[in-house]
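User: Show me a protein chain along with its predicted structure.
Assistant: Here is one chain, sequence first, then structure tokens.
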Amino acid sequence: MDLLGGTKISAMENDPKQGSAPRGVWRVIAASTAGTMIEWYDFFIFGSLATIISTQFYPSGSATASFLKTLATFAVGFAVRPLGALVFGRVGDLIGRKFAFLATLLIMGGSTAAIGFLPGYEKIGIAAPIILVILRLLQGLALGGEYGGAAVYVAEHVPDERRGFYTSFIQTTATLGLFVSLIVILIVRTAVGEVAFADWGWRIPFVLSIALVGLSFYIRMQLGESPLFAKLKAQGGASSAPVRDSFDTWPKWKVVLRVLFGVTAGQAVVWYTGQFYALFFLQTVLKIPLATAYGIVAVALVIGTPMFVLFGHLSDTYGRKRIMMAGNLLGALTYFFIYRGITAAADPLNAPVIVALIVVQIVFAAMITGPVAAFLVESFPARVRYTSMSLPYHFGNGWFGGFLPLISTALVARTGNIYAGLLYPTVIAAMTFVVGSITLEETRSRRIWDEV
């Protein structure tokens, strides 16, 4: 038994250096993926319900101002993700991967459930938005630690030759979390009715987090520590100061900055544009009814999600860099054309065309996101891997990606041009393509098991 009560898997029995996946790898992937998906569900139901939450926790007045305040509150959760990466990355590199992502799961679940019980502005006044922001901060801290733990945990169980394929399942979790959040919202809204949902029914998806997190926590408790990290600690190779050892020299910072501006910034905006911003665009710009917009995006997510695994698999053969750079370039070149097509298909509504155009964007996101976990793991040494890779990932996704809905919506409101919001992801994706093409090295051939 390990220190958390889970059955400890022998590092020797599960050492995959010889090229074959270790016994129980699919149980590891299922537990890691399910828990991370639930954390993304918790995080995204806030954004999915932004139009309703804006009426609950902010004073009545300008609908646009309230909506922008809600998007700012949503973005706060992204802003603190780099801090969560440092806090839980340090825990993961000091104590273990499993301990860190159990802690993040409980913090995320507790914060999400608390939002479901939080009284609105009419009952407790200014305390409502203040507490809401605090809970979003806790969610952001937890998410900042979750992804790195799950990605590293899976990567340190699988053979070098198939790392892109196996870690790509973790890359589906954000999309699956968004999908589950949309489906739960649609089911609850249909069951209680539109009026009741706007009044109190919106709280149910938040409260449901208690059951989902409890189940995931139980599953994760059955797992042991990652075999690679277990061997590293047994050999005395783990870091005693992961933050210092990750960032104490300029060459280490150069790697972090190359990963941030050459990979994760573009990955973030391409992912959020193709999924989250598409949902906002349908609802707030094109005024498509909520249920219809959710249904369109949900269908597109079902069709597009397998692409993350496909491109993760292809990156094992053709390399991570070229596939990721192609995704950035395609996004930068086509967003304005795609969204003009969505607008044309909205009146009269042609749902299959809109679904197809969103699927195209999901494919772009999958080209970058599918291989990115393997690339990040391969870019940093095992003794500080959790800390080192989590910081650029969460700066990219937390800041460049997390602020996308707010920045893009503000650009539309400021200019009156419904396509102005696309300027932001287009510029960031183009920047990432240029920086990544020039500065990144291909990492596919790196063998992380040789470190132990």
